[in-house]
Amino acid sequence: MSIRRKKTIIISLLALAIALPIGADIFANNASRLEAERQEIRDNRAELQAELAQARQEENAILEQMILNDIELLEVSQAHLAAIDDLERTRRALYYTEIDLAQVEADREVQFDILQGRLRFMHQNNNLSYLELLLSSQNLTDFLNNREHFRRIVEKDNATVTELLNLEEQILRNRNDIDAQRIALEIHTEELEIQESALLALLAEQEAALFALSADQDSLEALIRASEVAEQRIQNEIARAQAQANSIAAANNQMIRQGGNVRPSNGSLVWPVQRAPFVTSDYGNRPRPFGGGTEFHTGIDMQAPHGTPILAAADGVVTFSGWMGGGWGNVVMIDHGGGFTTFYSHNSANLVSVGTHVTTGQQIARAGATGLATGSHLHFEVRIDGRHTDPGPFLGIR
Question: N- or C-end of the chain: fewer Cβ atoms within 10 A?
Fold first, then answer.
């Protein structure tokens, strides 16, 4: 797997993760962290856009080269066809030259046979030699005629043989020239065929590269769109967090004006369950209800049948209302000022929203067993500056 492909997969996972709801507790995502996440998204998108631009440049370069290769392939293909035609014509010419040569060789053999026959006859009849032929002349005219006749016969035989030998030599030269031309054309045709095959293979490779680049561009464009969606979601979360922070700040200011800025002290909280409450699991070490062993219980569990009203333990502002992971289920958190927060979990339903100003004893939820719970009850915590502490003294049971 290429580095670019690994990077694309990593960025894809990052974009998908960012596109999911951001955390359970909106205030864990403070403005600076949200802004950092948004910047990271922008940086990743810039890398994706640069990679997309590079892919498009590569695609254009391949397309340009493919056009040139197509032109070259057309020229080579035309040359290949022309070479095949030339080779076929040369082979036909060579065929007919072989026929002509065979005919000349046959004529030459006939003339040689005639000449050999005449010489054989003269040898067998040596008494009729050339001198005897001349001496047998009856007169001067007869002598001259015999002499001329014999000379013409000899000249004719020599001329015929010479002509046949010259013609055979010329045909042999022609045949050798045509054969050399045939060999050269065969080599040229094979070279053009190899060149044509190489160009076809190169074009196939370039088409495959274009297909891969197109797929990469589709993936990059999809990731860029996902990045834009993720950034918009972060922007919405920042705006919502700011609005909630403004709402809580306004509610806290109202509490301060009403004297609600005093941190609850020992015995100052009301019990969040008013229907004959009793503690089913106290604050501190206890047997783990799931999986065995022991654990530190960070709050107090109170008996509360399903639907039992859950009440605000003191005046404050709701800072969280929703589902929280980690086994807590539906949770309501109330800020009472001075870093003092109460925590109510496993609710079957929450009845207040973030930013709501609640008063002591106001119903904020209904008891249930959401999240990891062995049965319907309320898990109640007190947190000071974000750290859990024993709720007992604030409820007057220590």
Answer: N
Q: Which residues pair with 185 in a beta bridge?
A: none
- Cα–Cα distances in angstroms (integers) from residue 334 to residues 58, 248, 258, 304, 352, in the given order: 58, 10, 17, 20, 10
For the CA atoms of 230, 9, 208, 62, what is the dihedral angle to 10 degrees? 60
Dig out the tokens for 314 from the structure: 């003191």
In this prediction, residue 6 has a pLDDT band, given cuts at 50, 70 and 90, of: very low
Q: What is the mean pLDDT of residues 80-84?
A: 87
Residue 300, token pair as written in the block: 């107090």
176 by DSSP, 3-state: which?
A: helix
Q: Would you say 302 and 309 are in contact if contact means Cβ atoms under 8 Å apart?
A: no
> Which residues on neighbouring strands pair with residue 333, listed in sequence order?
320, 343
How many C-beta neighbours within 10 Å does residue 100 have? 15
How many C-beta atoms lie closer than 10 Å to residue 326's C-beta?
10
Q: Is 234 exposed, middle or buried (0-12, 13-18, 19+ CB in 10 A)?
A: buried
d(CA 49, CA 228): 12
What confidence tens digit (pLDDT) does each residue in 115-161 have?
Answer: 666 656 655 554 445 555 555 556 666 556 555 666 676 677 677 77
Give tens-digit pLDDT for 180-236.
888 888 888 888 889 889 888 888 898 888 888 888 888 888 888 888 888 888 788
Comparing C-alpha atoms, which of 320, 327, 334 is closest to residue 270? 334
Cα distance between residue 354 and residue 336, in whole Å: 14
In order, the DSSP letters of 217-279 are: HHHHHHHHHHHHHHHHHHHHHHHHHHHHHHHHHHHHHHHHHTTTTSPP-TT-SPPS--SS--E
